[in-house]
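Thread: Newbie trying to understand structure tokens

Hi all, I'm a second-year student working on a class project, and my supervisor (Dr. K.) asked me to get a predicted structure for one chain before our next meeting. I've only ever worked with sequences, so writing a 3D structure as a token string is new to me. If someone could post the tokens and maybe explain what I'm looking at, I'd be very grateful. Here's the chain:
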Amino acid sequence: MNKFEIITEILKGTSDTSILWQVKMMNRYEIIIYWSDEDGAFIAEVPELHGCMADGQTYKEALANVETVIQEWIETAKEEGRKIPKPKGRLVFG
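---
Reply by user tm_fold:
Sure, no problem. This is what the structure looks like when written as tokens:
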């Protein structure tokens, strides 16, 4: 099962524990998704990875796109010797 199929199952509410476990292993960074009137698209941001974001015409597309961008962000950081923050999973604001 690929990332998009896993995410689709979760969004449909038909996921099980093994699918949720696979998603946790793919990405432990918090993702914030919102609609942008200015861009005419959903925006997916990863606050823990500076500048890491993607967009999509649908919520699902933005989520799938940001999963790819997260992997690219991490690969680039490794190549450039930059520090990769450990995922906190859920940010606390206050």
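A couple of things are worth pointing out once you decode it. The longest strand covers residues 32-36. The two ends are 38 Å apart (CA to CA). Feel free to ask follow-ups in this thread.
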